[in-house]
Design brief:
The chain is mainly alpha-helical. It is 35% helix and 8% strand. The protein is built from two helices and two strands, in the order αββα. The longest helix has 11 residues, at 37-47. Residues 25-47 form the Aminotransferase class V domain.
């Protein structure tokens, strides 16, 4: 069973960016976490 990386990347807006013409990658660590699109949209709808 393979992981559908393109589908997963679509859920995280930050991963749509490119750096020097290459897709952005994200290395997770204990200090930060990226939020999926549904969370970003919920926060935006609540506060803006």
């Amino acid at each position: 069973m393979s992981i559908p990386m393109k589908k997963i990347r679509q859920d995280f807006p930050i991963l749509e960016r490119e750096v020097y013409g290459k897709p952005l990658i994200y290395f997770d660590n204990a200090a930060t976490t990226q939020k999926p699109r549904c969370v970003v949209e919920a926060i935006t709808n609540e506060y803006y």
